[in-house]
Amino acid sequence: MPWCWPGRSSRKWDWHPGNDGIAKRIVHRFIAAELTIFVEPSRRWSFYKAINKERKVYLCPSLPHKRLKIMTDHPSHRAWQENELATSLARFPERYDAFYHHGGVEIPRLALPASIDQHYEERLGFPGRYPFTRGVQPTMYRGRLWTMRQYAGFSTATESNKRYRYLLEHGTTGLSVAFDLPTQIGYDSDHAMAMGEVGKVGVAIDSLADMELLFDAIPLDKVSTSMTINAPAMVLMAMYVVVAEKQGVSADQLRGTIQNDILKEYVARGTYIFPPKPSLRLITDIFRWCGTRTPNFNTISISGYHIREAGSTAAQEVAFTLANGITYVKAALAAGLELDHFGRRLAFFFNASSDLLEEVAKFRAARRLWAGIMKELGAAKPASCMLRFHAQTAGNTLTAQQIDNNIVRVTLQALAAVLGGTQSLHTNSRDEALSLPTEESVRIALRTQQIIAHESGVASTVDPLAGSYFVEQLTDRLEAEARELMARIEATGGVVAAIEDGFIQRQIEHAAYTYQKEIESGERIIVGLNKFQVDEEVRPPLLKVAPGVEADQVARLQRLKAERDNKQVERCLAALQSAAAGQDELMEPVLACVRAYASLGEICDVLRQVFGEYRDRQ
Amino acid sequence: MRKMYRVLIGKPGLDGHDRGAKVIARALRDHGFEVIYTGIRRLPAEIAAAAVQEDVDVVGLSSLSGAHLRLFPAVVEELARLGAEDIAVIGGGVVPAEDIAALQEAGISRILTPGASLQEVIHAFETACEEREG
User: Among A22, A127, A314, B128, who pairs with B88 as Cys (CB 3.0-4.6 Å)?
Assistant: First the structure.
């Protein structure tokens, strides 16, 4: 166990109990040189014993006027304890007074290397402090567990509302709304393009009336709600604000996240409507409006999840996501927004895939990289430099064969997310390679998180894999690889140019193809798929969306259009059109349309007329 | 020399998950097929019109959003409307076993489900092309 001293000397001494004579000689020499000795805390008592003084200031008999300062703590560690940690503990006490292994051995909050040097401080540092490699909170899950947030929604608003209440009853701590594809692409349920898709992968929302049913009897000041909505994010956010208003909940009490990340839609997920430029304007407008009205709402969730699902590698996931993040920040800065004002409301969303240690390293690398980027962009507040993220286990790794094996895959992936310091987590259900999950499958997925949280012990200490040679090297490697890819994007003229050129899409497609070839050749083993197969009749019970949903939804919409004040709708839509055609901010006119029960499709059509539609390269 | 088969890979509906469609398009291309990929978010009528215009032997459809029961048969109907019922249609994606019979009934000649290997996919397209040739 080394003890060392900061300051003028950088030498290190290995001292073991027993080297008492040497310890004394060194102490004397240090006093002569007026140096401070730093003693690793767990060694301090035997050190004091070695120099015959059980106290922290040692007087040398031959040089009585000089005192030796012995510190049992590194100054930056102490500074962290006195600042970040103390503040955090005062605001959010830990879940227990102390954490123990079975048998009573106490679990330390934060394990540290024997000596804290400059390299450690710069690369890893302390949790809740720049560069946040070890996490964004000083106590991480000792203070509060991650939010267990299961993405759900299907069929009608009434059906989905039932599922949300079921999840809340079973201990889920945040809602995550899945919208159906027509909603995500701004089509009403009666649009030709909506055929067959209504209520399938999420809930169908055509107007405020549907949104009122969706959150019926769910107090919006009590839950935090994440909404996977991008191109029409402004409209759905407006609906959420109005529903809250009707519940008597003011906008500033709302907590949650809208995905609102259009750039990854062009390369991976496909629910774009407008071209990049007006899309960025909508996003910036949301930052501006929400910055003052809904200060506790994350205005964007910059998502690598879908990029990874589309086939990218871990390093590409980080690189493309953070490059998108930079693009949003620069757009907002260009519109005159204050970096430290909107910076702390940027959130991220990553994939938690099966390569456990690479995933842990990925999350840590992403945090360090983003912190540096924000600092370079001019962020002054630490909160602006924090990469806070939601994670979801990797849907693409689920097999349709021996589906119960997926529970194990999800466990490993969820563990990776937790060891990597996620703020919230969705665990996929075992049957999702076949259809939407049944209630029972969803419960197992939620239980998986609860077992990790309460039984595995990994939530009792902060960033437990730090200092592993392998994990630290991998963290460095992923950071370097992502940095290089980002530089290549920058060289092609930024993300929008790289999308238009197809650079990002080609990278992802190539990685996806290579992966599939590896499975094909047997080089990569997927249990139950290309090895360890069994003959099975795959007929697990599946969730079926009732076939009548589309017709019901269309009928509801027609009823609404007959009953509402159509003059008022027209006035609001016209006002939105003129605002969009000019340079005005758009959130207020959209709110007016929503209040008048204009449909999502009507609102998006107005914007389509003004902004045009994006067409992909195919 | 064997004829160069032409196939069209289409994404009907609104599902944007085209990792599988692209991997299959590339695998078929590597195997010597001429492949046209429609891109995402196409109407059944657009896919059928493209298939006829490009004079393909087989159409491969992919949907992961659960809309296959509506969208795949719609493509078959559109092909028939254009007098191209001889173009075989293969479907793939997140298709539960219990839906396969209904799809076959509606004229989808083969269904490829999650976990199908590229070998199986290539074989399915090759067989469908050969059948059309007679």
Answer: B128
Q: Quick one: tokens of A378?
A: 């001019």
- Tokens 């078929």, located at residue: B28
What are the pLDDT digits (tens) for A101-137? Answer: 999 899 999 999 988 889 999 999 999 999 999 999 9
User: Each residue of A154-173: pLDDT tens digit?
Assistant: 889 999 999 899 889 888 87
Structural domains for chain B = 6-133 (3.40.50.280)
Of chain A residues 386-425, which have a CB less than 8 A from chain B?
Answer: 396, 399-401
pTM of the model: 0.90
Q: Min CA distance, B86 vs chain A (Å)?
A: 25
Contact with chain A for residue B27, Cβ under 8 A: yes
Give the residue numbers spanning the domain of A477: 207-521
Q: Are A263 and A324 in contact (CB under 8 A)?
A: yes
Chain B contact present for A538, CB below 8 A: yes
Asked if B61 and B89 touch (Cβ cutoff 8 Å), the reply is yes
pLDDT of amino acid A519: 97
Nearest to B96 among A309, A435, A519 (CB): A435
Interface contact flag, A542 B98, Cβ < 8 Å: yes
Which residue of chain B comes nearest to A510, CA vs CA?
A: B23
Which pair of tokens denotes residue A174? 């945040």
- Domain-terminating residue out of A71, A87, A110: A71
Q: Select from A150, A147, A146 the least CA-distant residue to A436.
A: A150
What lies within 8 Å, CB to CB, of A532 at 6+ separation is none
Question: A155 lies in a domain?
Answer: no
According to the model, what pLDDT value does residue A35 have? 55
Tell me whether residue A536 is in a domain: no
pLDDT at A70 over 80: no
Residue at a domain's end among A71, A100, A132:
A71
Determine the residue of chain B that is closest to A397 in CA distance. B115
Residues 45-64 of B with CB under 8 A from A: none
Tell whether the model's pLDDT for residue A450 goes beyond 70. yes
Question: Both A487 and A595 in a single domain?
Answer: no
Could you tell me if A215 and A343 lie in one domain? yes
- Could you report the predicted ipTM of this complex, rounded to two decimals? 0.94
The rounded distance, in Å, linking the Cα atoms of A70 and A37 is: 5
Average pLDDT over residues A467-483: 98
